[in-house]
Design goal:
13% strand, Aspartate Aminotransferase, domain 1, 43% helix, alpha/beta, aromatic-L-amino-acid decarboxylase activity, Amino acid decarboxylase, Aspartate Aminotransferase, domain 2, Pyridoxal-P_BS, pyridoxal phosphate, lyase, single chain, binds pyridoxal-5'-phosphate, dopa decarboxylase, N-terminal domain
Amino acid sequence: MPLDLTEQERADAGRELVALLDSYERSIPARPIVPVLDREVLRGLREDPFPERGLGVARLFRDIRDKVLPNSTTVAHPRNLAYVLGPPNGIAPYTEAIAAAINQNCNFSQLSPAASVIEQSVVRWLTGLFEWGDGSGGIITDGGSMATLNALTTALHEHCPDFRATGLQAGRAPLVLYTSQEAHRSVQKAAAILGLGVDNVRSVPTGADFRLRADVLRQAVEADRAAGLRPFCVVATSGTVATGAIDPIGEIADICADHGLWLHIDGAYGGLFVLSERLRGSLAACTRADSISVDPHKLLFAPLEAGCLLVRDRRKLADAYSFSSSYLPGGDDSLLVDYMDYGPQLSRGFKAFKVWSAVRAFGVSAFRSAIDDNLDLARYFAERVSASPVMELMAPVTLTAVCLRITTIAESAHDSVLRQLNADGTALLGPVRLNGRDGIRACVTNYRTTKADIDLVADRLAGIAAEG
Ligand SMILES: Cc1ncc(COP(=O)(O)O)c(C=O)c1O
């Protein structure tokens, strides 16, 4: 078979893979976080014609080792503290290989029976964290952005029963969506994709703590309603991308209840902090939401991609997404779910597998302690910043994002500090802009980061600050 491996090639590929994974793992701390690009190699990767006759397994692995890895960002580096992007957990590369081997199509259960129950078990565990019961459900997505897009789609179908037939063409008053000024851009993006129009997204101001102001939200909903518009949904954030602020979910839920609005919680960054005893109370009101997005590819350290949309009433997902078609068998086995009825995709990979495997292999408590360790490290970093005469915090540290500015340099110079830290191998941190002021953001979503790493970053920042 031209696309099969021979027994010998299989053995070679297995050996090559194991050796590559092992040497990559060992090399992580010594690798540059952002590589110095070999542009010639990259040009070759882009432009070399595909060979008519295959190069074989050994040559393929050599190219991966010599050309791909050196030009790839070391996401797993312990001082990768930028954005919300952690290292994959240790078992992930192996289970990803198995997922590729069995290639389940998680659209309907005939093509993926075990996968269907595994996805259900992951979803059930996650909904349980928010204390939702049997009627709840959800679907693994490509990430938090897709989860929010799916949530808003579901909210639209719920709010406008004729949405499937008429879309937004029925010529009625505009639907209005509410979120905070600190919301992730995926909310606006979803509104644009769905045809709601970003002009119909109200970015409600936040207080000094970067949490949505519920009093302003209530006024905005009432004003829009009085003006004949159609408020339909609030997207609250439990863990804003910049500062980790948790919106006042309980108060927002009251407003949603009073006005019949769908409450979606963007928990892509912060939702899974519910695993930490310390934050469970702050996230308790999430149980009142209609839907929540969470991102296993962030706090559960699943390799990209794995997001998840959770809905309190899973029938609402089916209302939005279930279509019948003569060429696809619909199942009626109560044990199995046809996930094509819960989201926009037909062909779908087995993303739930990497989440399920890791939680089974390491146990829930390993994830709890990784999250708690990250919280501790963020707090420690914040203490170092607060104790420094040349740095200051720009926002309270609620989760693991630490936003700071150096007081001895011009605001516009923070970008060059980021470049400096990256170039000298100290760390990859990200930029932040809060209340119109520029600064630096470190986000500890990395189970490899240690206190020594934080000290190294804080010392270097203090050194740069002292130089002025
Ligand atoms: C609050 C928040 N929402 C949404 C997203 C987008 O998630 P994803 O990158 O998985 O699409 C992020 C990403 O960092 C986030 O922090």
